[in-house]
């Protein structure tokens, strides 16, 4: 692992977790009486996308060629630009392909074909197996592999946030990729369970039952989606901001420490979203991806 620091800006972003008193009170009762029922509700909350999921932003590149790929009979939206070896763009939880739109033109200029997709229930893709407004990490990984089966194995994948962990899962499950760039990666699924637990106040019995339900849904333990357990020799660039409020900087640093072929670049003041629009970050990521 090598470490580099770039940039220095003051963060002004403050995120306050919601406090839903009625839900917390209900979970307190269910924890005592029926944690199994509470776990069904908790899993539903965990799988529910944020209210602004897939919202269009001004970050997309000029329109590419649009198509769809079927995953379990449901359409996954795909957009491509340019020609050459494919480099894939993978968004995070509650995102959409346009969030990585600033990477498209530099990648085209570097002589590669860009393939961007929306995970099930995100962006322009049809709802996944859990219905509209809900998703899960297994479908992220499955969607990436399904699109690669049609558009070609990636030379590289540039992934953001939760998309990094699911890209690592897809590679672990057999996706052939030469290089990876992870921007603001989130690596510990159980940390998100604990975060939801803090917000809504459900107890340890509910959590235990919830993890059982997650295992049934995904067909594997939540810890199996932690890329720190998927050691790979693939050259990987990790770019993470010290002021990231959504995916802690320690996640990226820990992943870089776990993967011997990983390089960590640290930014300061770009947070979780602005990092995708920073010219130096984009240039560094593209240069690494197209080697």
Which tags fit this structure?
Rossmann fold, nine-stranded mixed sheet, 9 helices
Written overview of the protein:
The structure is a single chain. The chain has 291 residues and is α/β, with parallel strands linked by helices. It has a domain at 2-20 and 79-188 and 234-289: Alpha/Beta hydrolase fold, catalytic domain (Rossmann fold). The protein is 36% helix and 18% strand. It is built from nine helices and nine strands. It has helices at 21-33, 35-47, 104-109, 137-151, 162-172, 189-200, 204-218, 249-258, 279-289, and strands at 2-5, 65-71, 74-81, 86-90, 113-117, 156-160, 179-183, 236-241, 262-267. It has a nine-stranded mixed β-sheet, with helices on both faces. Strand 2 and strand 3 (74-81) form a beta hairpin. It is globular and about 60 Å long.
Produce a short descriptive summary.
The chain is of the alpha/beta class and 291 residues long. The protein has helices at residues 21-33, 35-47, 104-109, 137-151, 162-172, 189-200, 204-218, 249-258, 279-289, and strands at 2-5, 65-71, 74-81, 86-90, 113-117, 156-160, 179-183, 236-241, 262-267. α1 packs antiparallel against α2, α2 (35-47) crosses α7 (204-218) and α4 packs across α5.
Structural class: alpha/beta
User: How large is the share of residues in beta strands?
Assistant: 15-25%
CATH topology of the domain at 2-20 and 79-188 and 234-289: Rossmann fold
Mean pLDDT: 89
Shape: globular
CATH class of the domain at 2-20 and 79-188 and 234-289: Alpha Beta
**Distance from first to last alpha carbon:** 18 Å
Widest beta sheet: strand line-up: 1-9-8-7-6-4-5-3-2
CATH-level-2 architecture of the domain at 2-20 and 79-188 and 234-289: 3-Layer(aba) Sandwich
CATH level-4 homologous superfamily of the domain at 2-20 and 79-188 and 234-289: Alpha/Beta hydrolase fold, catalytic domain
Q: Could you give the order of the helices and strands?
A: EHHEEEHEHEHEHHEHEH
* Helix content estimate: 25-40%
Roughly how many Å is the radius of gyration? 19 Å
């Amino acid at each position: 692992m090598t470490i580099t620091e770039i940039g220095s800006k003051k963060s002004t972003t403050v995120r306050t977790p919601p406090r839903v008193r009625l839900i917390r009170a209900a979970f307190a009762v269910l924890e005592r009486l029926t944690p199994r029922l509470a776990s069904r509700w908790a899993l539903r909350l965990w799988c529910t996308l944020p209210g602004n999921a897939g919202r269009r932003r001004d970050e997309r590149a000029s329109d590419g060629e649009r198509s769809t790929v079927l995953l379990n009979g449901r359409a996954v939206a795909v957009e491509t630009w340019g020609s050459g070896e494919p480099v894939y763009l993978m968004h995070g939880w509650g995102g959409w392909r346009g969030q990585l739109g600033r990477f498209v033109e530099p990648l085209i200029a570097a002589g590669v074909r860009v393939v961007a997709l929306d995970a099930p229930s995100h962006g322009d893709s049809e709802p996944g197996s859990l219905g509209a407004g809900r998703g899960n990490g297994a479908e992220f990984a499955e969607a990436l592999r399904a699109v690669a089966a049609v558009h070609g194995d990636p030379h590289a994948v540039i992934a953001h946030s939760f998309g990094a962990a699911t890209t690592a899962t897809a590679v672990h499950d057999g996706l052939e990729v030469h290089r990876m760039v992870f921007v603001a990666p989130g690596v510990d699924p159980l940390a998100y369970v604990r975060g939801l637990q803090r917000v809504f106040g459900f107890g340890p019995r509910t959590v235990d039952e919830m993890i059982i339900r997650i295992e049934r849904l995904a067909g594997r333990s939540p810890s199996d989606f932690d890329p720190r357990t998927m050691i790979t020799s693939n050259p990987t660039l990790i770019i993470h901001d010290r002021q990231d409020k959504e995916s802690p900087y320690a996640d990226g640093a820990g992943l870089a420490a776990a993967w011997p072929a990983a390089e960590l670049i640290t930014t300061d003041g770009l947070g979780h979203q602005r990092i995708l629009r920073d010219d130096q970050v984009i240039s560094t990521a593209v240069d690494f991806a197209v080697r």
